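Data availability (excerpt). The following record was deposited with the supplementary files.
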Amino acid sequence: MEHRIRVVPPKPSSRKVVGPTAQPTASPKVLLSDEPESLRPFIHLGAYLPLKSGHQRYGECIFCGKKEKFYVNEETGQWDCKACSKSGNVYSFLTAYYNHVNELRPTTKEDYDKLVRERGLPLEAFKNARMIWDVLHRRWLIPVAGPNGSFVQMRLYEPGKPIRNLSGLDAALWGVEYIKPSTNKIWITEGEWDRLALMEMLAGLRATGGSPHPLLQGLEGVAVLSVPGAGNWKPKWGGYTDKREVCAFYDNDEPGRKGVARLETKILGGVKNLHVLRWGLDGIYRTDGYDVRFREPVSSRDVSLQKL
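Predicted structure:
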């Protein structure tokens, strides 16, 4: 039996999308908290599933645009389109959606330049992080991969708003795919922008031969991770830090200090050493909330970690 689910009717989209398969549609606003957890990643990314048949929810395919052809199983999260034959689980949907957006309208230099001006980071930082502009929903997609490189989360950034995790999926550390058996140092940042800054700093240090500071030796063995929020550290993430040297780069504000204290209680017993970078001890950076950020767009070759 088919049941209709109450949603806010969509408003016609006035945005023009440039691309070979551009089929822009406006997704109605649906309260994610009212939806089954298994459906939230699909709806959060833009799927519209107003119809129900048994355990299946269905609606317009986000990929081919065919009406009432895209199905998602509420119990398993498995999905498929009866028209274009795309199918998979929730994680393959992340990859499929990311590729679809990238093909629909590839991110331009002008798109990246806006981020360069806003965040004070070099363009290469965003490209290396595989960030792309989602023209359908006017947001940046930040893919988060697991140890094998497959997407396990998708962080969303709408300019002027905080970065959000994709609803319905577990929060994940960003950068774990770069951890290798030879990795002996883990640098942990509080946020996404800080990780990108440290990655560029690391590239600059590697290119110039490093620094006399002991924490900046053996840089080939460093992996940079970011936590999804200052107070967020899951016990299962300890496997990435155990028996390794860890340095925490958290913000110099109350959430950052509490986050470091929480991190210490969670990992101190398993790590080789734990170092905490405390901003402002040299008398220069004393503003609460100071974090790793470039004052002006620079290339990775111009960056150093002199603050250490």
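Summary of structural features: DSSP finds seven helices and 13 strands in the chain.
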